Amino acid sequence: MHAALPGAFLAASSLVGVLAQQPPASAERTGARGAIDGRLTWFDRRGAKVGTVGEPGIYRTLTISPDGKRVAAERTDRETQNKDIWIFDVSSNAATRFTSDPAWEAFPIWSHDGSRILFTSNRSGVYDLYEKPSTGAGDEQLFYKSGEGKATNSWSPDGRFLIYYSIGQPTHLRLLAATGAPDRQPVPLVDPKFGSVTARFSPDGHWIAYTSNESSKNEVSVRPFDSATGSAGDPIVITNGGGRTPLWSGDGKELFFIAADGMVTAVDIKPGVKLQAGPPKPLFPAVAGILFWDVSPDRSGDQTRFLMPAPDK
User: Fold this and answer.
1) pLDDT at residue 32 in the model
2) Domains of the chain in sequence order
């Protein structure tokens, strides 16, 4: 396996560091980085608001289900400041509480078929990974445990692999088998001397997009991925001038990211023996202070919508 991106977060002020930094005790009292008091809001490619999901609240991490019909999001209770995961029905706006433990639950991600949700929780003292049926029925099960804090990133389309990032200095992206003992061993995705975070499998599972400082700056890169061997190839740097939190379009033909100037930006992608990326196309300014967002799974570019918490104005 080629050295891949498990990175070292340089400092809280660095882009990678800000994204992966686990809130310390002071943040527990004042709120986590990236939390927005408002609504989960849909934006079209021009940046126009085209709808909302759920009721007003304090939202941070979120993901859209593979069929686009539900949203799982971390929401902070205004009275208790407890952070739990809620599930919202996109068509009806109905809200269902998914977790209720007094610990902090965050970073929900869906299984490839939408039947399960993985999330991180510090209920045992360390941020470990747990899973539960997305219907909310049944008990939460320990998915993976280790001595370091960790946050989920992406579940492969074939259901065989999970990408998560460890939380610390340095921070690393790691690849984990989706089945096995709760303390099974992960594999680094990149050279541990670099900082890396926010990885996403492409819709076909053949590529991994992520943010890293392995090129000396915080940029978005893509690596080929072989699901048969569970190995990643050499990086292809996509951005030049900064980029973070990459997302794939539903058909895998575009990569979206937030540029250093805060613009939601699109890049045309042409997979092949060597992936080719087109020039960056700025779309619209992202919500100020946003760290976490998602894109609808629609496969038509004109139908693509972006979901992020935004102030309720």
Assistant:
1) 72
2) 15-311 (2.120.10.30)
